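Sequence, please.
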């Protein structure tokens, strides 16, 4: 009986405690309904510590009306929010506590799509596809007295160019520069963002996009250029969807278009007044970006319709990616359909969900604050001051490339070039790596140059002494005997004979055709040596000149990239030469083409060697020898084809052009066969799976 009373008493105490203890709706880092990602050196998304925590979800209601299908918002320096409340045909003002305090435009606006604030003026794009009437409405807003006065309306901009094209004005989003020039995105405007002066005169198109083509489409357009097929299938450049200014002289544009074949995009651009994009052509992003905003550390944000939030640094490198789509209305931090994002002075993110009709708030974590603090110092070139902060960031995430770059710059500025070199290597920062290597090399040369001069002089003297004494005593004959025996082996002799092409291609081809001085097997060995040097270059070439990711390299793929094109070229040349009465047999073409590549064996090892000692300022030497190697090979190839088929120079030029055309056809044929084969295999696999399931 006592035990039962004790159990009842404990149950009552626990119940009372649960009722008395305060509850909260805030979500801790571990409770966030999403993961946060960053980008590693291989352009892969990897999970990282949480950067932003969802804080709250606010149902914004004013005059008994909740926001409906809100498409855009802007924030001012006092953290007042201005929401284009599209469904309610109004602009809603929220103070810095996110409390609705005023609305205007109900009696004027039809379908507000975009909003921008400059001083006391609020610019609103007002366009409804059902009425096909587009305009920009400008209100003057008195924040102190909460009064908005209609100031002016701009309809289709004045321009003979727009009138000639029969242009229909469909403004979507707007940004306004300090001097009153308007940057407007218009639905269907594939020429870019409209730049309009304060008097509503059209100036020019700005930040246009280019259509995206796959590799196969590029080949098809090349082959069928000028035909009806090309005209019928030509793509139109996607129209910019959104535009943003941050007072730095750059215009940021958002476009909705497909990712490229590698899964990257240029849908988010940072464009100067000359139209040059300062963000990479291949950024990590998505195809449904809808809005962007700027931070105070040189960072920028972009949000997709599906709710994915991307934060980039000043150079367009991904810092964080988080949030996304969610159907559970009780879970905030996810979205049904995001439409706009802004950043407050305290770095909080405000995001509109146009389907749930709410405003969600995200707050930065300690980790994110460290990154932002370091970014601020990095932006101001205070690298040494940022060292401890970057090291703290690395404590959270040891593979954060930007942090390694920041640490490297701090070491570099303090003269610790060896440690800087290590950090730049980890960060895959080739430019700064080259600068640090230059300093290390310079110090080494100053300290050891005299020693190396003595070594070189002694080496030259030793070689000279050996050569001179050997003329009298001939003691090198004993050393040469094994090499002579090896050289006299038939396969070795045939393989080494290919190097005679370097200086006497005409005589060499004659010897090959009439005296069989080289064989298909010996030429195949030469081809394998070239492939081996290619693999060696992938591994040994200096960091600054090496773009290969060894961990992702597949030997078979590399073999296909190098060997298959050479074989296809040989086949194409033989087929074309057979039609042009060429005299060379297939084996003669095979031997002569591969022997023409022997400059690669002579020059490329030297190129690999010097790449380990050169910096960016001497890179011209590296590329000079690469270009010289290929020019030499091409000249040998040209002369070899001329001699092997007994052509004149004009005939050889025609033969090479037709060979290249045939090569493209063969490549296209291989691609078609690959696609067909892949579809057949997939079809058979599906049939087998279906049979197993139904068995």
């Amino acid at each position: 009986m006592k035990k039962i009373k004790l159990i009842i008493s404990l149950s009552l105490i626990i119940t009372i405690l649960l009722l008395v203890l305060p509850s909260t709706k805030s979500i801790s880092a571990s409770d966030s309904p999403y993961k946060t990602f960053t980008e590693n050196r291989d352009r892969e998304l990897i999970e990282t510590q949480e950067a932003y925590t969802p804080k709250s979800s606010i149902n914004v209601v004013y005059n008994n009306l909740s926001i409906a299908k809100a498409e855009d918002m802007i924030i001012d320096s006092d953290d007042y929010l201005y929401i284009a409340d599209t469904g309610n045909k109004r602009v809603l003002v929220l103070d810095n506590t996110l409390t609705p305090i005023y609305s205007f435009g109900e009696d004027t606006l039809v379908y507000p799509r975009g909003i921008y604030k400059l001083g006391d003026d609020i610019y609103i794009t007002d366009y409804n596809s059902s009425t096909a009437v587009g305009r920009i409405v400008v209100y003057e807003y008195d924040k102190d007295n909460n009064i908005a006065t209609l100031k002016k309306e701009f309809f289709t901009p004045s321009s003979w160019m727009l009138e000639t094209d029969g242009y229909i004005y469909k403004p979507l989003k707007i940004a306004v520069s300090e001097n009153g020039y308007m940057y407007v995105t218009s639905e269907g405007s594939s020429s870019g963002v409209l730049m309009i002066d304060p008097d509503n005169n059209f100036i020019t198109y700005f930040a246009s996009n280019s259509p995206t083509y796959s590799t196969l489409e590029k080949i098809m357009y090349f082959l069928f250029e000028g035909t009806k097929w090309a005209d019928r299938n030509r793509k139109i450049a996607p129209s910019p969807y959104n535009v943003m200014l941050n007072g730095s002289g750059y215009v940021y544009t958002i476009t909705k278009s497909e990712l490229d074949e590698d899964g990257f995009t240029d849908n988010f651009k940072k464009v100067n007044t000359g139209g040059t994009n300062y963000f990479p052509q291949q950024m990590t992003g998505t195809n449904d970006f809808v809005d962007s905003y700027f931070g105070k550390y040189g960072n920028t944000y972009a949000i997709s319709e599906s709710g994915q939030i991307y934060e980039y640094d000043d150079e367009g490198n991904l810092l964080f990616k988080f949030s996304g789509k969610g159907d559970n209305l009780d879970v905030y931090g996810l979205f049904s359909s995001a439409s706009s994002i802004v950043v407050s002075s305290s770095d909080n993110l405000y995001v509109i969900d146009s389907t749930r009709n709410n405003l969600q708030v995200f707050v930065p974590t300690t980790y994110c604050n460290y990154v932002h603090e370091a970014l601020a110092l990095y932006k101001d070139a205070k690298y040494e001051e940022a060292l401890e902060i970057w090291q703290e960031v690395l404590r959270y995430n040891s593979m954060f490339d930007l942090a390694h770059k920041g640490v490297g710059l701090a070491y570099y500025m303090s003269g610790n070039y060896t440690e800087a070199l290590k950090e730049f290597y980890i960060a895959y920062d080739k430019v700064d790596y080259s600068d640090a290597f230059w300093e290390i090399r310079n110090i080494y040369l100053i300290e050891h140059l005299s020693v190396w001069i003595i070594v070189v002089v002694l080496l030259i003297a030793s070689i000279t002494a050996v050569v001179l004494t050997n003329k009298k005593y001939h003691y090198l004959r004993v050393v040469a005997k094994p090499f002579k025996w090896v050289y006299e082996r038939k396969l070795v002799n045939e393989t080494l004979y290919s190097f005679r092409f370097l200086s006497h291609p005409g005589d060499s081809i004659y010897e090959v055709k009439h005296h069989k001085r080289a064989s298909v097997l010996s030429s195949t060995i030469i081809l394998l040596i070239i492939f081996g040097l290619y693999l060696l270059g992938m591994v040994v070439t200096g960091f600054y000149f090496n773009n290969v990711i060894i961990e992702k390299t597949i030997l078979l793929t590399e073999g296909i990239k190098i060997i298959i094109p050479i074989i296809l070229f040989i086949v194409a040349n033989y087929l074309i030469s057979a039609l042009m009465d060429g005299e060379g047999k297939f084996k003669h073409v095979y031997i002569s083409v591969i022997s023409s590549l022997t400059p690669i064996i002579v020059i490329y090892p030297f190129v690999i060697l010097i790449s380990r000692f050169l910096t960016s300022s001497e890179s011209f030497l590296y590329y000079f020898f690469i270009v010289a190697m290929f020019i030499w090979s091409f000249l040998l190839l040209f002369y070899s084809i001329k001699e092997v088929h007994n052509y004149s120079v004009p005939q050889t030029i025609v033969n090479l052009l037709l060979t290249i055309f045939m090569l493209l056809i063969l490549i296209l044929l291989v691609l078609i066969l690959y696609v067909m084969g892949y579809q057949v295999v997939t079809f058979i696999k599906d049939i087998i799976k279906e049979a197993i399931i139904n068995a």
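Residues 192 and 207 are 5 Å apart (CA to CA).
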